[in-house]
Every structure is written in C-alpha cells, then in structure tokens.
Amino acid sequence: MNAHTPPPATGYPGAALVTGAARGIGAAVARRLAADGFRVVCADACAGATDPVLAYPLATREELDATIAAIGPVATAVQLDVRDADAVQAAIDATDELAVVVNAAGVVWGGAPLWEMPAVAWREVVDVNVTGVFHTVSAAVPAMLARPTPRTGRIVALASAGSSRGLPQMAAYSAAKHAVVGLVRSVARELVDSGITINAVAPGSTRTPILDASAAVYGLADVEAFTEHHPIGRLLEPTEVADAVSWLCSSGAAAVTGSVVAVDGGMTAV
C-alpha cells in the first residue's frame, strides 16, 4: 500500500473538526459526518448578539449544545473563534486521529458599496472567512501529516456562489470567498503526494441565518426572493450542502483535490 491507497469505503477512522458547527450548514455537516462514522468536534465562536459590527445575531452556545445533543456521544463541543490562531491550534492538538477538517465558519456584512464600508467590517469579514481558514488549515495539515501511512486526510472549505461572481453591496464577502478558492487551489498543489486533499464547496442561496442577513442587506421581505437566481426554482437546504461535503470526505473522492464543487441549483451555470 502507498500514500494514495484509499481507505475503506465505510469512511475514515478518526475525527472530524467542523467550524461554524452551531447552526446552518456547519451543523448539517457535523450531523452528516457523524452519520458517516466520524467522531465530530463541533467548534463555534458562539458570539450570539454581542458582535458590535454585524447587524445580525451570531450563533449561541445553546445552539452549539443543541447540535451536540442531536448528534449524540460521538460529538464534542469546542467554543472557539477561528480568528484566534492559538485557540484553533489548541483544538487541533486536542483532537486525536484528525482525519477531516471542514471550515464552515463564516459571517456576512453588507448594505453599502465598498467605499462606504467601515474598515472594521471589512476586517471582520475577511478575518473570519479567510484568515480563519488559514488558521485552521495551517494547524490541521501538520497534524494530518503526522499520521502513519497510508496517510489520508480531507480538508473542505465553504466558499460560495459569490466566489465566482461579484455581489453588489457585499464586496467584502465576495472577495473573501474568492480568496478561499485561491487558497484551496494553491494548498492542493502543495499537498500533492501527501494523501491529503483539500477542496471547496460553493453553495448557492441556502436556508441559513446568513441568508436571512443577506435578505436584509437587499431589503427583501422574504428569503424566498432568492429563488429567482436558482434555475431549479427553490432554495437549497443545508443538508444538500452537507451531502457534497460528505462525498469530498469519502474514499470515493480520493482523486479530487483543488476543486470547487458548486451546490447552487444551477446558479453559476447561467
């Protein structure tokens, strides 16, 4: 066997760390990976309504605890902010047999053109959505490389349909998601022959709290208005995005790295 030998079809032994796991796509991914047989470390900042920059409440500790309760004993909770490199490193160090990392933590700010955007808002969006991925990947790769061969590892970052197009009044978010794609593609080249893959999933309008915040940015009364951007004629569900992440974390995706998997109802196909 060599470093490219895929693991059993039932999945990888070991643990999966999911950031942004308290709700939305992150929570759906955590539940799905647990169903796939992983021990799941569910991480979230749990900032609630305390953030002075963002105009919507972030996830709470109660929501993170609810995710853990829904999954059961194979899940553990870690409260951390992905902007804190030391906290991310500590979570990685405390996770035995790290096999999978999913970067689902994300925030959005909008409602004004770029030149009217406060610098503090720009920094927060970029720090969570891009620097948070940098911190997590930088900590995870050495831990994965330290595992015995035949080595396997899966890293997935959440991008967005906005990572391939411009989003008016949400320039920071779009720029950050473009950056995530560039990071994924570059690191994939750096990990060639390691047995570790890294990919991005780019969701379209998915029924999550971030979509609620996006609707407010555009003055929409209801998130259902976003369906006009989807040729399939409906919003996406977090579980549908989690299905794509699950596949990328499976043995069936061993040859997939540096890719962006669009789960967007055909949004970027037109």
Describe the structure.
By secondary structure, the protein is α/β, with parallel strands linked by helices. The chain has one domain (15-269): 3-Layer(aba) Sandwich (Rossmann fold). The chain has helices at 24-35, 61-71, 85-93, 119-145, 171-190, 209-217, 238-248; strands at 15-19, 39-44, 75-79, 98-103, 153-158, 196-203, 260-263. Strands 3-2-1-4-5-6-7 form a 7-stranded parallel sheet, with helices on both faces. α1 links the parallel β1 (15-19) and β2.
Write the SSE topology.
Elements lengths: L14 E5 L4 H12 L3 E6 L16 H11 L3 E5 L5 H9 L4 E6 L15 H27 L7 E6 L12 H20 L5 E8 L5 H9 L20 H11 L11 E4 L7
Parallel strand pairs: 1-2, 1-4, 2-3, 4-5, 5-6, 6-7
Helix pairs in contact: 1-2, 1-7, 3-4, 4-5
Quick structural gist:
With 270 residues, this protein is an alpha/beta fold. It contains seven helices and seven strands.
Number of domains: 1
Q: Strand portion, in percent?
A: 5-15%
CATH fold node name: Rossmann fold
**Radius of gyration computed on alpha carbons:** 18 Å
SS content category? alpha/beta
How many helix segments? 7
Helix content: 25-40%
CATH architecture: 3-Layer(aba) Sandwich
Q: What is the H/E string?
A: EHEHEHEHEHEHHE
Spatial order of strands in the largest sheet: 3-2-1-4-5-6-7
* Count of individual beta strands: 7
- Tell me about the biggest sheet? 7 strands, parallel
Name the shape in a single word: globular
CATH superfamily: NAD(P)-binding Rossmann-like Domain
Q: What is the average per-residue confidence, as pLDDT, rounded to a whole number?
A: 89
Q: Report low-confidence residues grouped into runs of 5 or more.
A: 1-11
The CATH class is identified as: Alpha Beta
- Termini separation comes to 44 Å
